[in-house]
Each structure stands twice: as structure tokens, then as C-alpha cells.
Amino acid sequence: MKVKKITELDRISINEFKLANKIPLVVVLDNVRSLNNIGSIFRSSDAFLVQSIYLCGITATPPSVEIHKTALGAEDSVDWLYFEKTEQAIERLNEMGFTICAIEQARNSIMLDDLQLDKSKKYAIVLGNEVKGVQQEVVDLCHSCIEIPQFGTKHSLNVSVAGGVVIWEFSKQLR
Fold it and tell me: Is the pTM of the predicted complex or chain greater than 0.90?
């Protein structure tokens, strides 16, 4: 095996990305405070052709040098909107017919490895604050909660890692 050179990766341009068919998924960031986490979620969203990102509450917005450090330009390719309150974003998604899933450890959550998506539906996932998770008021507005099975001593993943894992699963099932 030989590692590919950057010129061998056949990456699309930002304009081609904007025109590409996206997976029917919106990623909602509920008060995510780390600009590095925000940038990483932009980058994962670009990698898997996510429709858009909704940045809510204290979540910072581009342009930002710190977001760019981890997004590496994905903040320019992936469409995004800002909402003062996450509840406003959820209301808009409901009006547009999205099935909304909080990524949270909750009673009666669906384990990610049991998740069965319907390719005819549009989805939104809500990722929460690094310390507090998804606000209970936001969870209450979601159709379901999805939980990532974990087997070690820790009870959570970094929000950008959790986002990458879940976005990948949605991409696999919705492509």
C-alpha cells in the first residue's frame, strides 16, 4: 500500500460542493462553546455532504480564525444559519418536516447501533454543550434521543467526536 498524495484524492471544489446532492441531514449545535469543536463539526459535515449546520445560542459563527483551524475551509462549503435560541431552530426544522433527534444519554433513547433510518425522511441531529449536553427543554422538543453505546469508564465523548460518529452513521444509511 502507498499513501495517496493530496492530488490523488479527487476532492470537489466549494462550488461543486454547493451543487452536490447532500444527505437530508441538518446538524444543530446547542450552545457548543469550543471553537475547535465547532470547526471539527463543520469538517465532518463537509466530508459526508451534510445539508447544513444550525449554530445556536453561545455557539460561535464564522468567520473565525479558531473555527478555521479545525474546519480547514469547511465553514465556507457547508451552509449554516445562526439562531439565538435552539428552540427557534427546532421550530423551523419541525415546520420543514424534519425528524429531530437529540444525541444524548436519556431514558428510552435509541442506541446508535439499533438505529434504522427511513431514506424518505429528512433528519436533524442536536449536539449539546461540552459540559451540560443538550438542554432538557430542547430534548423535550425532539422526536427521539440517540445514544452512542460506550463500554469504558467514561460516560461521554467529546462533542465533535460524537458528532463525527453519528454523522457517519446517518451518511451510511441515507446515501
Answer: yes
